[in-house]
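Suppose you are handed a protein chain with no further information: no name, no annotation, nothing but its sequence. What can you learn? This example shows the usual starting point.
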Amino acid sequence: MELPIITRPPSGANGPIRLLVVDDDPDIFDYFREICPLPRFSVAAAPDGLTAEQMALRETFNVAFVDYFMEGMNGPEAAQLLHRAQPALPVVLMSGFFAGNREKVMEEAGAADFLVKPITAESAHAIIERLVGG
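A reasonable first move is to predict its three-dimensional structure. Written in structure tokens, the prediction is:
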């Protein structure tokens, strides 16, 4: 059975804002769950782009935060998979070690923003607010 492709993210108005965090560092998942707690947020975690894509085919998300540097598949490649699953899903790339042209990488990946690690609650919340009004 083929799973449906989700074309627009949920509004978040009738439930928590759904975040997908894609990173090969499990500490990032714990941190996002700490700074984005229930009931306002729901945080799902994927350790790589392929897992994230499978999750995005089954569930809807408001925003995906994707690490730029991961084993096997980088953040822009993972972003492309997520956009195939949910074309309207805003993707935010994250990195603490990126020295390239952020705007160019964001454009190529179809990313809505770039979050510099270490992440603060304020910076994550500001991006979420801008992207989904959360």
